[in-house]
C-alpha cells in the first residue's frame, strides 16, 4: 500500500464550532480524516473507537477542561502514546504550557494560530503515524506469510504421516463429566485407521452410535493433568484394536486433546495366530515325542517273546507240542508287529493323500462279520460281553471292504482296550435315510467333554485314558480318515469319565438298483506249480534266507544274493523264472539292478518283483518304470508270494 494511501485521523477538540471550522480549514490540505469533538467526554469516546495520528485539544472548555481530558487520554492503554497538541487563548501561556508539558503534550499552540505553522506541526505527526502504520502493516503481512508457510508445513506433515491423527474437544455435562467429544481436526489417515468418513465437526457418538465411551476417562485425565499417556485398547463397537498416544493441547481447562493412533487389529490377530501356531507346534512336538516313546515300547514288546521263542525252539526240538505252541506264539507277535507297521504306513499314505481305495459293491453286514471275527481275540482276552445287532436286509455300499473292516475292527479294539475287565460292548447297525449308522458302545472309562474331539487327533493322548492294552494311539485317527475317504463321518459321545463311550460312523448306502464297477481278482489256480528258479536279492541276510527256505519247502530252486553285483552275476549264469528284488541294496538301488537285468536276453520274460517298505502309487509307478512286473510291500505275506509263484508257473507252462 502507498505511503499516502494509509488512512490517518486527527481529532479536533474545541467547544466553539467556529474554532473547529478554522482548524479544519487549516488542516484540509493534509489529506487526513478530521474528527470533531465539542467536549472532553465526546473526545474520550472517539479515542475509544479508533486511533488518531494527533489530538488538537483546547485548554479551556466547560465541564472538563483540556488538562483533565489529557490526563484521561494518558491513563488509557489505547491512547497513552497519542500525540497531544494543546491550543489555548489564555493570558498566561507560560503557566499553561508548563502544565501541558507535564501532562505529556508534544506541543503548545497559542491563538491566534498561523495555518502554515499548524499544518507543518500536525503534518509531522501524521507522517510519523503513517510510517508507523506502514511498518505495522508490513510486519503483519510478513507475520501472516510466515504463519501461512508454517501452516503449510504443518498441514503437509499432518497429512503425510500414515498414523491417524486428530484433535478432539472434550464435551462435558453439568457435573463436569465428559459425555462426548467433537473432532476439531483429522488427517487423511484417520479414515483409513477407523473407517469413519468426514469426522471434523462431528462428535464421536454421531459417528459411532452406541459408542461405550471407554476412552473418555483417559482423555479426561490427560486434559486435567497435562500428562501425556500411551495405551492399547479394544473398541468393541468398532470391532478394532488401537494403539493410542494422547496429549493435552493448550492451557488447562481448554479441553483440547491431540490423539495419535493406529489400528493394530491385524497385527494383534497375526500375533494371536503366531502364538496359536507356536502352541500347536509345541503340542505336536510333545505328541511326536510321546508317539516315538510309545512306538519304541510297542515294537520292543514282541521282541522278548520272539527271542524267547527262538531259545525254546532250540531247546525243545524233540517236543512237537511245545514247538507248535512256540510257533503260534511267534506268529501272533509277528502279526502284532505287522499290524503296527501297517498302521504307520496307513498314516503316511493318508497324510500324503496317497491312500488307495479298492471299491466294490459290498454288503456292510459281511464286512461287520469279518471285523467282529478279527477283533474277537482281543474282546475275549478282556472277558467282555459283545452283542451285535445288524439288520436282516442287505446293506449295499460302494466301498473298500478291507478299509471298512479296518474301521469297524479299530472301533471294537478301542472299546476292548479302554473297558475294564468283564465289560460290555455293543455293536449296532441301523439305517437312517440313505445312510448306514454303525455305532460301537462300551462301559469303559468314558471321556470328559473336552476330550471328545481330541480322541480323533493323531498321536493325541486323552488325559486319564492310559493305554491298558498297548497301541500307538492312531487307531481312531485312521477311523476318521478312512470314513471321510468313503464320504462318511464319525463322532464320539460320552456321559463323562467312568460312564462309557459311543462312537458312531455314518456311511452312504447304495440304492438296490445301482450298478458299481468292481475290480475282481482272478481266482488262483489250484494246481500245484512246477519248479521255478527263483532269485532272492536282499541285503538283510535273515530276510533273504527265510524266504529262500520257504521257496525250498514249496519245491522251487532258490538262489540267494545280498548285493546288486551278485544278483547280476547270477542272472548272467543262471536262467531265472522269478526274481524277488529288494530296492535298498548297499552297492546300487534295486531300480538300477532291474534295468540292467532287463537288458539281458535271458531275462526278458522273467517275473521281476519289487520288495520294498514303500507302497504309495508313486513308488509303484517308479518300480514299473524300472521294469518290475509286480510290487510287494514288506513284510511280504506268504499268500501273495504263493500267488505270484503260481502265476509264474502258469506263464512258464504256457510258454
From TrEMBL:
Residues 9-126, 533-649 form the Response regulatory domain. It is a multi-pass membrane protein. It holds the Pfam family Response_reg. Residues 267-294 form a coiled coil. GO terms for molecular function: histidine phosphotransfer kinase activity; phosphorelay sensor kinase activity. It catalyses: ATP + protein L-histidine = ADP + protein N-phospho-L-histidine. Its EC number is 2.7.13.3. It comes from the Bacteria. The modification 4-aspartylphosphate is found at residues 58, 582. It is found in: Cell inner membrane. GO terms for cellular component: plasma membrane. Residues 294-511 form the Histidine kinase domain. Keywords: Coiled coil, Kinase, Phosphoprotein, Transferase. This is histidine kinase.
